[in-house]
Amino acid sequence: NQDPNGDPRSYELYDPAKHNYNYNLLLNAVSPIKRVGLSGFGQFDLTENTRLFTELMATNRQSNQRASPNTLGVYRTIRIAATNPTNPTGQNLTLERRRLEEAGARITEQEVDTFRTVLGLEGQWGDNWAWNVAMNWGRNSATDSSTNIANLDRVENTLNTSLCSNTPGAAIPCGNYLGYGNLTPEVLDYILFTQRGSGGNSQQGFSGTISGALFDLPAGSVAFASGVEFRKERGWLYPDPLVVNGSANIVRQDPIEGEYSAKEAFVEFAVPLLQDVPLVDYATLNLAGRYSDYDLFGSDTNYKVGLDWQVAEPLKIRLNYATAFRIPSIPELFGGIGQGSLTTLDPCSNWSTLPADSVIRANCQAAGVPTNFRQLGNTILTTTGGNPDLKPEDARTFTAGFVWTPGFAPGLTLT
């Protein structure tokens, strides 16, 4: 680490208190954002009991953020040969970290367009029945960009004396990364680029429902609802080619693209059991079932049984038992391998300075961690990705609860 107030050829050991970077100097307290939205709703009575309806929503969001300058040494080891003229040590060097302060802040921009439309019919049969059929289509698409990102292949070129040249106007200028201010505008123009990526998701669907009262029981009418649904979902992510091949000095990311379709049918009943008897203002049994058929996972049937019991005016008890079925999302299934940064602190950093009876000290020593080990920074590189072999998750749940509205405290409700 170079002392900016001393000899530019002088370097000293890393000291977190002295050399850690202040990220806040270049950041905005509030990042700018611009959002434009349009929505519309319409309906038209075709007959006395049939209505045409439509919905339309569109939004555009533009935002940007400032980020600290790009840092070399995080995603690829940067080596400076002993024979490189910029290396004053006469030994091969590994550049642990080098923040490209000369380039200034990175500017990250996003633009997101969202569109959704619905067209349907709804109506009534008699006094107790209602129906609804609708089609919907929605799409969310986004582009993003980040300036002042280093191309690591080109960084290596500027350190390869057989490729680079200090001649003005050279196609590959030689770079001096040892010391702030040593990177020339020519080197920065050569190694930096603006990464651009895009992504989004879309959904198409059709649904139809019918609901009403089947018949009467002593405690009230048996309510019924049923319906069918079809939907198709697609998702995609196309990173910058230099991000995909690992040349960009940011987290690497594979493209994502996948889709699935589903057909579902459901039925629900609300059966009144008791009403206005001792300890029961009313009690309703709720029954529901759903059949799902996915093109990627096959079919599954789930159900729910519940009880709503109004004991008296202030107290209601709820009981539910249900099964559930969850399929993996498109990124979970089709997401390629990508990198990430996990913020964490290594407990073995500076372990030799801990008290002799410290358990952490004993564990780090037993693990063979060097006595002079220090964590550089507070983030580590992680690797994540999707898995096309993932299967749906099944669950069984039981919930019990109550709602209490005491008369002695108007406005108070406890659940």
Architecture overview:
This protein has one domain (25-343, 397-404). A hairpin with a 3-residue loop joins strand 12 (280-294) and strand 13. It is built from 6 helices and 17 strands. The strands form 4 sheets. It has an 11-stranded antiparallel β-sheet. A two-stranded antiparallel sheet has the order 3-6. It is elongated and about 95 Å long. The chain has helices spanning 16-19, 152-159, 185-191, 241-244, 330-334, 359-366, and strands at 33-45, 50-67, 71-72, 78-80, 93-95, 98-99, 106-125, 129-150, 192-217, 220-238, 256-277, 280-294, 298-312, 315-326, 338-343, 379-384, 393-404. The protein is 9% helix and 52% strand. It has 415 residues and is mainly beta.
SSE blueprint and pairings:
Elements: H1 16-19, E1 33-45, E2 50-67, E3 71-72, E4 78-80, E5 93-95, E6 98-99, E7 106-125, E8 129-150, H2 152-159, H3 185-191, E9 192-217, E10 220-238, H4 241-244, E11 256-277, E12 280-294, E13 298-312, E14 315-326, H5 330-334, E15 338-343, H6 359-366, E16 379-384, E17 393-404
Antiparallel strand pairs: 1-2, 2-7, 3-6, 4-5, 7-8, 8-9, 9-10, 10-11, 11-12, 12-13, 13-14, 14-17, 15-16
